[in-house]
Design brief:
mainly alpha
Length: about 180
């Protein structure tokens, strides 16, 4: 096995391990118990709006990155996608903080329950899937594995876009 293939195997393992840890931590934060006295010890009431804003920025940046690559502006595409990854990482950070200091998710009280739960369930499933997909896509772009990058990016882009758009939609339906 070549050194390049060994490096790929190593980084793919790291990506899957990190993705599993993130998914497990978020699952625990949403449905797991909290230490006594933690809820309300930090005012996180403004974080849902920040999360929706970060999701909105991610949506815009994804579209800009897509336009740049269609225009063959690789450097602009790369920089935009790194920024997009940064807004997603910031979202994940504020999301974790919010759910650590506030127990459980907010319940939907609107008139479109079936529609809301369809969006929520598909959002959750695809949000879990997008973690390793985005990391692999980023890794393959970063390491100039262009053919492999294009192949996975064709799947990652619409999934990531759906997750970011539905993240905003869920916020609007809840707040």
């Amino acid at each position: 096995m070549s050194a390049s293939a060994q490096a790929n195997r190593f980084w793919l393992r790291i990506i899957y391990i990190v993705s599993f840890i993130i998914f497990g931590a978020i699952t625990f934060l949403i449905i797991g118990p909290r230490p006594e006295g933690l809820k309300g010890s930090l005012d996180v009431s403004g974080l849902p709006k920040i999360n929706a804003t970060l999701n909105g920025l991610t949506t815009i940046l994804l579209i800009i990155g897509f336009v740049f690559i269609k225009q063959k502006k690789r450097i602009a595409h790369k920089n935009t996608m790194l920024t997009t990854f940064g807004t997603s990482a910031a979202f994940l950070t504020t999301y974790v903080i919010y759910h650590w200091f506030k127990s459980g998710p907010k319940l939907y009280a609107g008139d479109y329950t079936g529609f809301y739960y369809f969006i929520l369930i598909t959002h959750i499933i695809l949000a879990a899937a997008i973690i390793p997909m985005a990391l692999i896509t980023l890794y393959r772009g970063w390491t100039d594995q262009i053919t492999k990058h294009r192949k996975i990016a064709k799947i990652t882009f619409p999934v990531w876009l759906y997750v970011s758009v539905t993240g905003v939609a869920i916020y609007l339906m809840l707040y």
